[in-house]
Known about the structure:
Elements lengths: L3 E4 L5 H12 L3 E5 L5 H12 L3 E4 L6 H15 L4 E4 L14 H29 L2 E6 L12 H21 L4 E8 L5 H14 L3 H9 L11 H12 L10 E4 L7
Parallel strand pairs: 1-2, 1-4, 2-3, 4-5, 5-6, 6-7
Helix pairs in contact: 1-8, 3-4, 4-5, 6-7
This protein binds nicotinamide-adenine-dinucleotide.
Amino acid sequence: MDRVALITGSTSGIGLGIAKHFAKEGYNIMFHGLEDNSADIAKSVGDAHDIKVAFSNANLLKSEEIEDLVSSTIKEFGALHVLVNNAGIQFVSPIEEFPNVKYENIIAINMNAAFYASKAAWPQMKYQKFGRIINISSVHGLRASEYKTAYVAAKHGVIGMTKVMALEGASYNITCNAICPGYVKTPLVEGQIKDQAKSHNMSEDEVVEKVMLKKQAVKDFVPLEAIGDMALLLAKDSSTTITGTSFALDGGWSAQ
Ligand code: NAD
């Protein structure tokens, strides 16, 4: 199989988990992320699975760099079948203290970048008559929590965008879906555990049990494997009619 996947933010956390899943299935992968060891991560996954990889550290705050990321993927691999808009950041603050720049950056990276990357991939996917766009939203695309105005707004926005792309992509076999995880233990969440332990004056274990997983019926972090499996299903050739939908992998949080 010569399928090509571009996964933003794939040198850490959920994106890396998804990339490893796709690598096992033989996809060639454009890795992307800002981690210092990103190029090494891409190479080691490529070597382990005997697939072709490339790497970019495009800054998703800049639309020109996003366009470049997509065009260099197509140039390098000759195609682009799966785009996973995964990269994201978090910042938590009461509304009146929320710094404007943090708000703007969260909207730019977590929402606008998904639009710019999909827009750039669109002509190639149309030409191929095949495209699978997978947006990593969040349970916070379906539900709100205090102090997360920017994140909740961006993640709800991504779900709206997912529905429009599904409609416009339908006649070209371009599908678009969102995955909405509950808490996954990644560097993004490990940072939050530490911050919340300080602000609530609790141990890190107490924060996990009493604050983070409070709203999940299943009191476990969502495993990376579950998200990788879901993404692989959405990417399949046979998934033509799975489109415009949000899949909650949230331990029952949004069932309430
Ligand atoms: P992470 O911090 O481990 O990884 C984020 C990735 O995004 C990194 O590779 C980082 O380099 C990249 N990135 C950040 N800012 C960037 C920028 N300006 N330009 C280019 N790349 C940038 O985070 P994660 O927990 O793996 O989160 C991945 C996605 O999953 C995010 O969209 C997040 O909102 C979402 N999500 C996470 C959880 C969770 O519990 N971890 C839950 C639901 C949704």
